[in-house]
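Morning. Coffee machine broken again, so started the prediction first thing and wrote up yesterday's gels while waiting. Chain of 292 residues, entered below exactly as on the submission form.
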Amino acid sequence: MPASSAIWTSDGGGMSRAERKKQEKAAQAALRRAGLPVGHDFPLLFAHTGNLRRILAQRPNAARAQEAARHHLDALNRSLRQQAGAFALECSKGCSYCCHNMVTASAPEIFLLARHFRKTDPSRRQDVLEKLKAADLAGRDLDPRQRYLAHIACGLLDENGLCGAYESRPNVCRTMVSASVAACRASFAGEPAQIPVPKPYGALRTAYSYTLLAALQAEGLDDRLYELNQALCIALETGDAEQRWLSGEDIFAGIRHERVDAGEQPQIALFLSVLAAGAENSPLPANPWIAG
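Came back before lunch.
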């Protein structure tokens, strides 16, 4: 998203309080109806980031991280429904080539997955743990490409190629689609192949990732994206994992992760700062996307 040259013009602070409230009300209504759009709609980006911040700021609520993730992914589902039928996707039930990629997820998304399995039968939960640990050990020392070519399945994938936590799966899994199963099959076999992913899905993946990261940063919470198999094992096996994470304990220490580095990715870091400021109606840092 930051690579775009699109400019959104702000009111430069000249909007009255009543006008601002009207704009915010319209943005919230649009989010409830259809989620974030594909394009640069900054009022909606600010509104969604603000919603996440408000949930994450509910200090007495020990489940506020997973609740933020649920709100976040429900909005993403609404966005994805707007794309339904617009592209000839060839993804189908049981097609799981992409489920052999290394997946990273935010801590709130991991806690949402943990809640999903805590509500299941203890024997099934133990089976899932064993599969997660096996997938983690098989791929821990491999880079993402090596892991994919080694055909190491996500620990949540069952014997029928179905996700064991489909309703709670993270952003990246929801937006990983393809317009050619033949290309996916060829890539999985190690052949050179370009998998055609319609641009709106990548744009939505980025928009939702950045709004959540901005909200986490603004609330002083861990904004790393963790390798899913190992992180979910820790979330399931660590007592009071979410509460300890919310209190600042680094329960995922040592797990492979990704993080926005302000030194190496200054444009993305600036974009996150703009989202956080806009969510609070604070003055925006100088940036190339919003003209004052």
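The chain has twelve helices and five strands. Going to sketch it on the whiteboard this afternoon.
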